[in-house]
Amino acid sequence: MRFLFFSERHGVAIMRSFSRSLPLIRFALIFISACCISPVSADESDAVFNLAQRFYRDSLYNLALEQYEKYLDIKKRAPENDPVAYYRIAVCYYRMENPSQASPAFEKFIKLFPSDDNIMDAMFYAGITRKATGDYKKASDWFYGVWSRFVGSVRAREALYQAAVSAEKDKNIDRAVELYDIFFRRFPEHKQAGNVALSLARMLMENKELSKAEDILIRAEKRRSSDKTFPSRLYYYRAVLARTMQNTKKAAEYFAAMQKKHAGFFPEFEQGYKEYIVLLADQKKYAPTLPLYEKLAHYYESQSIQYPDGFFLSYAEAS
Length: 319
What we know:
By secondary structure, this protein is an all-alpha fold. The chain is 76% helix and 0% strand. It has 15 helices and no strands.
């Protein structure tokens, strides 16, 4: 009994002593926690960021994206890593073929870090992703921004071309003509110069600026092109221009040159051969249309395109 009484009495004393010490213990725990929070969070952010970098280098973009976003959610983090995280989040979306998420991600990076080393590429890819979503106006604006800010770089030349293409797709013909003209005058030997010349000439013809269109085509004819279909395309547009200027004889010569230079199918192939057939038919020259019909038939078969209505009837009448 004494032992029991002794234990209870000392137990009560110990509890009273613990109760008096509790405020001091709480203060000590709070102090220790306050001292440890910052280093632990910083270590955590570094670990998450480094893991994201590892996934990114291994092209595991979905996993990298998750870790970059997790890193940015950590309030206590090293801010010097933020530009890389924001930029690579956008790149991850782009690599994962998700332009609707990539474009605002690139634009957010541009807004937050306008002087970052990756700013030129970010602006270019903002244009690429906007173009992919069909927002051609914004795409053209971003591309032109690259051109105007980084003139002299290879990326800027490509951006000028893309700005013109996007303006054309946006049906802003005046703007497209302006940009194509700048490109063709400044970079006549560029690999895209041939395409630019033909697009520019076509739009000038649509605007009834025939003398300017003729000048562009003459200048384009003097340049070399690695594209084997370029001569056929060039003669097609020269034929269209001659016909527009009511020079039927010259138009027929250019259409004949288009057919002779044929080195494969080109974007205007069907339209060019159809227009040549009509021109010959108007002149009552039916025999020369037969090889044109044959090439058109081969084109439809090889491209798995359904024959247009009346094709075989016209073919038979020409025969």
